[in-house]
Design a protein that fits this description.
nine-stranded mixed beta sheet; alpha/beta; 27% helix; globular; Rossmann fold; 9 strands; single chain
Length: 182
């Protein structure tokens, strides 16, 4: 089989309705790769991508971006005043998260699935979901749709826990540091 880059590997797997876990270290380009997949004209990617917000060299928060429509909503911030509806798992997280963003993400996902997207991106599955918060409810076994492939973005350090919690043993794992793919 011919070698291919990670974006091509992800496209081929998702087009074949194979669930994919995209993993790598913090700031390894996972969300950037999702943005590239969303920009492929022949590929209908739904779901949401977490886009970092920066002030100088400091990450100050995240926005959720919906590739299907270009909509954005504030997901997380270090500044409590920016979020009137904030929640946090246990105070150990660096950011406060918006309850409204999680509600909107669930609506976006349902809408995208009803419109027949090929795949949905869930960027990212992390500590909140491991505590059965955040996006957990729409990702748990029995809630995921069989009508599209899922692209889960997961930091490498959380991969075993997320795989077990969400029953993702069937998913193909693509690692940002492993190149090329067969």
């Amino acid at each position: 089989m011919k070698s291919m880059d990670i974006q091509t590997a992800a496209e081929k797997l998702l087009c074949a309705r194979q669930d994919v876990i995209l993993t790598g270290e913090k700031n390894s380009g996972k969300s950037t790769l999702c943005m590239h997949l969303a920009s492929v004209p022949s590929f209908r990617l739904g779901g949401f991508i977490s886009a970092g917000m920066w002030e100088g060299n400091e990450k100050t928060g995240y926005q959720l971006y919906r590739p299907a429509t270009g909509e954005r909503i504030l997901l997380a911030s270090r500044d409590r005043e920016r979020l009137s509806d904030s929640c946090a798992a246990d105070g150990k997280l660096a950011f406060l998260f918006s309850k409204e963003a999680f509600i909107r993400a669930e609506q976006w996902l349902a809408d995208d699935l009803s419109r027949g997207v090929q795949a949905v991106c869930i960027d990212e599955v992390g500590p909140l979901e491991l505590q059965k918060q955040g996006f957990y409810d729409i990702l748990r076994p029995g809630r995921r749709s069989d009508n599209a492939a899922y692209l889960f973005v997961v930091r490498r350090s959380l991969l075993p826990e997320v795989t077990a919690l969400l029953s993702l043993d069937h998913a193909e794992i693509l690692d940002m540091e492993k190149k090329p793919y067969e």
